[in-house]
């Protein structure tokens, strides 16, 4: 479906994603499974540690944090939702502006181009298999606010025309955790899916959600979540440009990291 970025982009991105600033943080124990690598620091909670399985590697420090990290509150733009945006085929377009809709859904093998700047507030957002949502960020970025379900099905792509993660922000409000702890019980009525062989170029903020990233999924940008599990061969590439700021400007994005735990009915 043409989800691979141009070679010129890959060459430029290498300088931002192949270094040692992909720091990972957690308010509890960080579990690094076998054959996993963290290119940066792994900072567990103040009374926790980093547990490493065979052939895993952390290139930086594993010193615990001095105090817990408190996630900021997520505020949604006010407005009443009406209607749906359903896309079939390769000719879907959405002009810049602010949208409040019940559902945004791309059917299989479809494509939607959203012109920025735009703000899209939805109850549910779903990209079905082999679909692409492309942001034209020539005049500004696009921010998504999702109340409940967020699904990236297999072989989907969410990216901008410049492949710059700063062009797309995905904010997820859903709380899918029924029972926290070492064995996390998830709410079956809430779908938060990042499925195999898909790519997302952007930032993800999900302060109340546990996200399970499936094998061969790639995220270019950053992710902040209540809990995070990364399956085999999935990759998160932190874009160092997201951390650039003027001296007096507060950083907008941070890498919080992942914690691998047992999910009821699933594997570690």
Question: What's the gist of this structure?
Answer:
By secondary structure, the chain is mainly beta. Helix content is 4%, strand content 42%.
Provide structural commentary.
With 268 residues, the protein is mainly β. The chain has one domain. It has one helix and 23 strands. It has one helix at residues 7-17, and strands at 24-25, 30-32, 37-38, 42-43, 50-52, 57-58, 84-87, 92-94, 97-106, 111-115, 118-127, 132-136, 142-146, 150-152, 157-160, 168-172, 177-179, 183-186, 192-194, 199-213, 218-230, 235-238, 262-263. The strands form five sheets. A six-stranded parallel beta barrel has the order 11-13-16-20-19-14. Strands 17-18-23 form a three-stranded mixed β-sheet, with no helix packed on it. A hairpin with a 3-residue loop joins strand 17 and strand 18. The longest helix is centred in the N-terminal third of the chain and has 11 residues, at 7-17. The chain is globular. The two termini are 31 Å apart. Mean pLDDT is 79; it is low at 1-14 and 245-268.
């Amino acid at each position: 479906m043409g989800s691979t970025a141009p070679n010129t982009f890959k060459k430029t991105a290498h300088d931002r994603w192949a270094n040692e600033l992909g720091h990972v943080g957690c308010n509890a124990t960080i579990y690094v499974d076998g054959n996993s690598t963290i290119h940066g620091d792994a900072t567990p909670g103040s009374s926790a540690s980093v547990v490493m399985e065979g052939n895993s590697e952390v290139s930086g420090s594993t010193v615990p944090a001095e105090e817990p990290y408190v996630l900021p509150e997520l505020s949604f733009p006010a407005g009443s939702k009406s209607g749906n945006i359903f896309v079939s085929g390769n000719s879907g377009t959405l002009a810049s502006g602010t949208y409040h809709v019940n559902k945004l859904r791309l059917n299989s093998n479809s494509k939607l181009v959203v012109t920025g700047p735009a703000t899209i507030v939805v109850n549910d957002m779903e990209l079905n298999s082999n679909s692409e949502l492309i942001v034209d960020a020539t005049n500004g970025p696009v921010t998504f606010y999702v109340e409940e379900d967020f699904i990236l099905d297999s072989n989907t792509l969410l990216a901008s025309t410049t492949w710059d993660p700063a062009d797309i922000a995905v904010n997820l409000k859903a709380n899918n955790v029924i029972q926290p702890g070492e064995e996390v019980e998830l709410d079956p009525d809430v779908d938060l899916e990042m499925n195999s062989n898909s790519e997302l170029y952007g930032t993800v903020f999900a302060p109340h959600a546990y996200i399970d990233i499936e094998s061969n999924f790639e995220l270019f940008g950053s992710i902040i979540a209540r809990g995070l599990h990364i399956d085999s061969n999935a990759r998160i590439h932190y874009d160092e440009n997201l951390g650039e700021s003027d001296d007096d400007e507060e950083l907008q994005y941070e890498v919080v990291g992942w914690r691998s735990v047992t999910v009821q009915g699933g594997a570690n």
